[in-house]
Amino acid sequence: MKRIKLCAGLALILSAMFACTLDYRLYFTVDNWNYNNDTCTVTYTITNTGQKTLYDVELGITVNYTNSYGSQQTGSSVYCGNLSVLETKSGTAAVYIGSGCTVSSVVITSAGWNDSDEDNSIFN
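The structure assignment produced for this chain is given below.
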């Protein structure tokens, strides 16, 4: 009897996990970056791998660098618009960090979107 309850419980948890996680998924990557004078230009690609349109997608980008004060980091956000299911977008973001810096890495540290359904009304 305990085994049946355990299996039923696991099946319920797994079905709830899959129902929630597959609706909203966003794959993103930093393709490259270039530092020139005082600005780090970041090229990125994002893909909606979920099962619903993502509205008002925004990425948070962090640039790690070294200047005369030592290791530093600064961030910026970039608005990416709406992404249909399986749609891919590429873009660039300019992050001001000042002159005389050495950029060590660039990462996407956050992603956010409006979780509206297709009719654009929130939490249907």
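Interim note for the steering committee: The chain has one domain: 24-114. The first helix runs from residue 2 to 21.
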